[in-house]
Amino acid sequence: xxxxxxxxxxxxxxxxxxxxxxxxxxxxxxxxxxxxxxxxxxxxxxxxxxxxxxxxxxxxxxxxxxxxxxxxxxxxxxxxxxxxxxxxxxxxxxxxxxxxxxxxxxxxxxxxxxxxxxxxxxxxxxxxxxxxxxxxxxxxxxxxxxxxxxxxxxxx
Length: 156
Known about the structure:
The chain has 156 residues and is mostly helical. It has a single domain, classed as Dna Topoisomerase Vi A Subunit, Chain: A, domain 2. The chain is 55% helix and 7% strand. The protein has 7 helices and 3 strands. A 3-stranded parallel sheet has the order 2-1-3. Helix 2 runs antiparallel to helix 6 and helix 4 packs across helix 5. It is elongated, with a radius of gyration of 17 Å. It starts with a helix and ends in an 11-residue tail after the last helix.
């Protein structure tokens, strides 16, 4: 109990809120893992985002959106005829990038999935602001709710 109150000081919401957050993040991770087995393309902003997703057990087809012109990038991805999942950060730059890519993809007849990104944003709220922080955040949640960090999908 004493240890739990010490950990609670690191968090701003009641304990049950973090239990629910962890449960919801685990569901999203499971869905992303499933999508990775279905040849979905995950679009991120950088190499650290790719590594973070791999640490979460998502070993799919990753593309980094910031390495060429956005129009050319989206066109080349659209030609692959695969499901596109946008997982940019939820800071100002990541939001703008997601909106621009969505517009470009629509012009090429592709409807990218931004639903999972939106769910993550709503779950983590202002606790973290980027994809690369997800593994550490999940570890903290697992420790807070009493899960071993060796349980679940990944190790950091």
